[in-house]
Amino acid sequence: MFTGIIETSATILSVNAHGAGKTFWLSSSIAPELKVDQSLAHNGVCLTVEEVTGDRFGVTAIEETLRKTTIGTWKTGTKVNLERCLRVNSRLDGHFVQGHVDTTGTCIKRETLDGSWEFTISFPRPFAPLVIEKGSVCVDGISLTAFGVTENSFKVAIIPYTFNNTSIGSLQVEQQVNLEFDLIGKYIQRKLTLDLSSTQPVL
Q1: Class of domain 8-84
Q2: For every residue of 39-81, which 3-state class applies, written as one string?
Q3: What is the pTM of this model?
């Protein structure tokens, strides 16, 4: 479980394809603190650390992950957001994030304002019930508040710290992002779409 509060960034050093999967080696300041089998969110995607060597670490993405996220587009030099998993005794500064990307979205507008930035992100219409005004949404692993919500897009406002310390500062129009919608909203949608009245409890 994560919070969507980015800890630091990493740079892709190499990409190696093997079968339908890909192994990535990344460089980051927190690499020496990582352990094999540790869960780590990369642009909002939970991947398992497989090997650590100095300031480098390796992770592998399987076919399902490559198909549903932007990871398949990563190449040498790509910078990604990193977040280690939530400690049980930590403050929850963002919102509950699983690291399980629901879909990808596309940046369709980027605006520079007086001291902040606004991005408009489009997403597949079937996910519309999961995006609400002033609700939480995870964009490339960053916990943000959605506003200006339509049936297939929303806006996010970015403060200077987030702009300068995450990958969103380099996000351009037509670029894709990973999206994970609010966990509670997904459970509510599931409950509303099921005909619970016809379901008998299992004893």
Answers
A1: mainly beta
A2: EEEECCEEEEEEEEECCEEEEEECHHHHHHCCHHHCCCCCEEE
A3: 0.86
